Amino acid sequence: MLRRLYDWVLRWAETPYGSWALFLLAFSESSFFPIPPDILLIALAVAIPKKSLKYALICSAGSVLGGCFGYLIGWQFMASVGTRIVDFYGLTPKVEYIELLYNKYDEWAVGIAGFTPIPYKVFTIAAGAFKINFSVFVVASLLSRSARFFLVGGLIYIFGPGIQSFIDKYFNILATAFTVLLIAGFLIIKYLL
Questions:
Q1: What residue numbers bound the domain in which 147 lies?
Q2: Total domain count for the chain?
């Protein structure tokens, strides 16, 4: 099933809608959607390596704007929408701890959540709910999300089409590792924070 999804995602690069799909996925993942945009970024960049930095830029822009939307959800709609999203991920008990992180570390909490597999959407919503300085939030999001996506895009840009055979050969291992990292991000917030 994962292989079919990967192949389907790769076909987006052959359509004029691949960039839009990447932008929308990055936007929604930063505010409410559970699937990270990395897989589509990788698929598009591998299909056309010379555009990998462009795809990283599109992904970064969508993610930061989606993070701003998550901030808006927390700031204006925490009671009606934000709590439902946080509940969906089972992280309601961690929201108070996230508030402590914000009070103590401010932009570092946003930056770490933006770069790692920790569910960024929970931090964007919490940033709005706790009224973190919006400018600080945007700058930290821009730096961390861009670093994450340009790292992926840059590696594909440097290694070019050769990396596609590596991904094809080791896709199951890479997909498993990515899934483990994603789940670990959720568990870190849920049990360790």
A1: 2-192
A2: 1
